[in-house]
Amino acid sequence: MIKNLYRDSVSLMQFSEKLRALEGIAQASAVMATENNIGLLVEAGLLASAVPPSPNDLLIVVAGRDEASTGAALDSAEAMLTAKAADAGDGGVRRVIPRSIQMGLESMPSANLALISTPGEYAAAEARKALQFGLHVMMFSDNVSMEEEIPLKQYARAHDLFVMGPDCGTAIINGIPLGFANVVRRGNIGVVAASGTGLQQVTSLIDRFGAGITQAIGTGGHDLKSEVGGITMLQGIEALAKDKATRVILLVSKPPSPDVMWNVLDKASKSKKPVVVEFIGADPQTITGGNIHGVKTLEDAARAAVLLSKGRALKRFSNALPAKYKSLVKPAQKKLKKGQKYIRGLFSGGTFCYETVLLLRESLGSVYSNTPIKKEEKIPDVWKSQEHTVIDLGDDLFTQGRPHPMIDFRLRNERIVQEAKNPETAVILLDIVLGYGSNMDPAGELVPAIRQARKIAAKAKRTIVFIGSVCGTDSDPQNLSRQEARLREAGVILTDSNAQAARLAAAIVS
Amino acid sequence: MINKLFEQELQVINVGLSSFAESIRQTGGKSLQLDWRPPASGNRAIGMKLALLVNDPQVEAANRTAFERFLSAQPILIGVDSARNAIPHLGERMLLHAGPPLEWERMCGPMQGAIIGAILYEGWAEDHGAARKLAASGEIAFAPCHHFGAVGPMSGVISPSMPVWIVKNQDRGNLSFSNMNEGLGKVLRFGANDASVLDRLRWLETVLGPAMNAALRPLGGVELRPIIAQALHMGDECHNRNAAASSLLFKKLTPALLKTDLPSSDLARVLEFMAGNDHFFLNISMACCKAMLDASHGVEHSTLVTAMARNGVEFGIRVSGTGDAWFTAPAPTVAGLFFPGYSQADAAPDLGDSAITETAGIGGFAMGAAPAIVQFVGGTPQDAIAYTREMYHITMGINGGFTLPSLNFDASPAGIDARKVVDTGIAPVINTGIAHRDAGMGQVGAGITRAPLACFEQAVAALGQPRS
């Protein structure tokens, strides 16, 4: 236990990895000594019994070959964590790194936004402080209750400030990607989205289709519930309506509660700008009217926004698989053996998973998932697929004590191998998310697992079809074209969008 | 304002995952990564309470009022009189002590020794045994000095017959008091209580006190802030080092003393005593600070810390907006250097009202001014400046009256804001002497300690919820 030393959970996970790599160490975990973390360690068998929680202290637990190696690991852990930051070297006086938002404002007096990614239990207080200093807020943190969210958003609205989030994974403000976000060309489309990966998909596709965005505002997943009333989305629409650079507004969300939906559409119709609305899973016909254009998929949303942004007329979007993918269906089907009947979708993005389930159900009937459309399609055991199964690996179930699957591919890679052993698996369907915050080389992480899966299948004289879509741009640090090329080399069939990947997979197993 | 954001350069304060700050920089934005930790030691309820107080208009207004009163204070050393005469409402069978309230049974060794000494000095008991019995009997009332506008270093014991310095804040008229410094070695404030100690106390009462009073009255008092300001330019921080301030006061008082009708033998001893005690000014420095801080106490909603004091068992603070309440935590130990033959094992926990100096922005807060004593805390002159710089982050402002040469004559940090302490986790730094844990052994070292954060967290929890 190191007293009074705070590190964020991501750096602690990276640090725990370093400890695990030490000679003679089997397991290592460095966590803040919160009640929750101590519970996890006890559950994992790394602590014999619970110790009293002390959230400001850092707890390191190691298991290893013998006392010498665990002792050495603990010593070097402590040395690494408490090593003094190198001073400026000018013999000058050591200065304190700002610790609070108020202290931060002393160094950055013109700050206009606070990006908050603390553990959820502390996030609301930090957001409140930021708002009271007149800063806009993006809350990446999740596990913030609606009881905390509502007063924050009400305060923000009263002071003409934004609260993006809580649980807002991504936003792009003034061209700067915040959180998990892609580097998207600037243009004249303004986006407001309640879903992080939904926002990433539409903005990346807008870039892929040759257009760009003004702002991409995230609202967080609770914003459109009737308790919150869509405060941030309504503010976002209003701001984009006033924004001279924005020609088209694009809204993305799961279907809101009816009262909120009405308010959102009312606000949208008053914007006097074309508004594309993707309420994922809702019937576009019920939304379309006047300046509002309902669409069915995230890809259609991006296409519609791009057309409108160029002043072109909207066409009706077809549900059919485009010709360039149709030709891939037969060759893929030929590779499959009789027993290979099912799609196994392994997703890192919640909205990609959700959209996939919706689209697959249209042609395949029941699709099992940990985030099902219908209760009876909830998968009984998330660790074991049955029939058509689509899993969101970003679910809290999987992320307790480990990084998000967009960063850490171990869990998904293990599952790819597991699905390859199953004789019923026909298609493994993947999403690959690029951008800041995500793994710096997703193709490099996935390809070895795909190769291993192919080998396992080949031994049983089977071939598995891999289908995926990469969400990203060429300006992303990972580079879209390079990532796509390496996945294609490994035999993965890639489509431009998540929706087309789902439709192609469905066509192959139909 | 939202649309204004779209026209501004995005500047982000990043609270949490540092990779987000990096990606903002990589894409051409500006970001500042905080060295964040959960405020209020992770207590969510206090953390949220704190958030509601931060930059709140009502709290800010209250703090402006309180801080303004603190800065405008003009403490004048006006005279010396017996505690009985000088301190309003002091009981006849009452002993004042340092720090927050505590009962006889819980007092540390040095404080019990001082109490026994004071009982003998007052003649309330014949011998040590009887004095101890009387102290435990409940017949003597014990109260913190702070409850009577007084402050005392170490055990801080003040009894009715003892002479006290009287300081008046010319700005608002409030009075403050402190006992007279006995020098080093066997002294009451460290719990010594033998005949030599009692003899000296009687001499303070009958000779030194009246002599000082006789010198001060014709002068119309001595303004204290200019002395402290000058001493800060001469290597004092006016808590652990008072060599310069004591000399400056000596210069002021000697001509006045010579004009009194004091017998020359007394005069010689008085001058000798003053000249021989580098801490002669400490108690006056403390009373000065007390007068400044009392002026700012009692402003509703103000988060200004108006007292930090230790009784050897507990560390306690008071805050302007929370009235008479004390917020306490176990007194910390002091990390420091020990005189030859002593070690940490001999040290009593932190003791005395002298942290009133830090509360007023000198002492540890002005460490940068006193490189001569920085070795007590095992550091370099740079470290001393770093301590002072750190304190700017938890204070409301600066005291233009007290400037620090080593900081390029920047004004010293002043006015501890309980909110900032809890929000940053930066605890006020205190320079202090270390008492032996047993009564009467005296000072065994000096060093540095920090006020416990728990005191400030309780204060934030107790502060009134603002309207807004």
Structure report:
The complex is a heterodimer of chains A (510) and B (468). Chain A is built from 18 helices and 18 strands. Chain A folds into three domains: 9-82, no CATH class; 168-309, Succinyl-CoA synthetase domains (Rossmann fold), CATH 3.40.50.261; 323-509, Rossmann fold (3-Layer(aba) Sandwich), CATH 3.40.50. Chain A has helices at residues 9-20, 35-43, 67-82, 101-107, 120-132, 146-158, 196-208, 231-242, 258-269, 298-309, 323-326, 329-335, 350-364, 396-399, 410-421, 442-459, 480-489, 498-509, and strands at residues 25-33, 54-64, 113-116, 136-139, 163-164, 170-173, 176-179, 186-193, 213-218, 248-253, 275-279, 292-294, 342-347, 368-369, 389-392, 425-433, 465-471, 493-495. Chain A has a six-stranded parallel beta sheet, with helices on both faces. Chain A has 510 residues and is an alpha/beta fold. The model of chain A is unreliable at 84-91 (pLDDT under 50). With 468 residues, chain B is an alpha+beta fold. Chain B has three domains: 2-36, no CATH class; 61-69 and 300-462, v583 fold; 72-285, Enterococcus faecalis V583 domain (Enterococcus faecalis V583 fold), CATH 3.90.1710.10. Helix content of chain B is 38%, strand content 21%. In chain B, the strands form six sheets. Chain B has a five-stranded mixed beta sheet with strand order 6-8-7-3-9. In chain B, helix 4 packs across helix 12 (282-295), helix 10 (243-258) packs antiparallel against helix 11 (264-275) and helix 15 crosses helix 16 (453-462). Chain B is globular, with a radius of gyration of 23 Å. Chain B starts with a helix and ends in a 6-residue tail after the last helix. Chains A and B meet through strand 2, helix 4, strand 3, helix 5 and strand 7 of A and helix 1, strand 1, helix 2, strand 2 and helix 3 of B. Strand 3 (113-116) of chain A pairs parallel with strand 1 of chain B.
